User: What shape does this take?
Amino acid sequence: MTELCKTGTRSLDEWFKVAVELGLDGVEWYAGFLETLDPSTWAPTKRRADELGLAIPMMCCSPDFTHPDPEFRRAEVEKEKGWIDMAYALRCRYCRVLSGQRRPEVSREDGIRFAAEGIEACLPYAQERGITLIIENHYKDDFWQWPEFAQKMDVFCELVARVRHSHFGVNYDPSNTILAGEDPLELLSKISDRVVTMHASDRYLIEGTIEDLRREEAAGDPGYLKRLRHGEVGKGLNDYDAIFTELRRVGFNSWISIEDGVDGLDQLAGSTAFLRRKIAEHWPAGSVTKGCRTCG
Assistant: This one.
């Protein structure tokens, strides 16, 4: 993320090359990529992806709807609409929304209300462009100070239940539930009928405990904490057989995006092979289209 969004030391052509070499069907986009901040770059970027046979199905962005200042929240709605425009230009079918940061001064009731209002304000704009907004059970944007407001299962489920719209669904990430100290299968059982995309990941702590992580979060340290890492998918705590069984039960047939590669391409190749094998086992007719995202 830093190389693509801050320093510019990795190019999108390099990133595309990884997806092609792994034989993936597409790449998930991130709204902060330096090379596509200017709208004039969107059309040629899409043409380049088409030349390589890569779809761009999902736009990953991080609106912050839980700020106590209504003017700030209105600005975040306009920012999300700009990301929807980018998603439309890249022919994404899905564009992420989040609740916002879990600021200590914002109550649960207000945070859920602020987040729902922000999402609902964006939905007509997305629907006009044929884009579905997807809310992720997220941990923390790479560049945020505070963790996700709707990180905990009860808050997330309440927010999802509050927003009912044909162009709104869930991007499910099982590892983020583990980071919340909760059971990813329990969360999935509550929202599986709303899941329209998925982040396949396996997180782990390189040292310490979840309690240590909670103490660091409370201090408001920016970004992802150093003790937190993405691991190779299939080698962590997630039960992908159980996850895919439930998704198949509810008729899931959409993009699965790989969150891995932090420790090198060999790890990403291992995650890819694992997911292909599991997808073939659970959707033997090959009905699921696979996606790739190498950044968390």
About this structure: Residues 286-296 have pLDDT under 50 and may be disordered. The domain at 2-282 is CATH 3.20.20.150 (TIM Barrel).
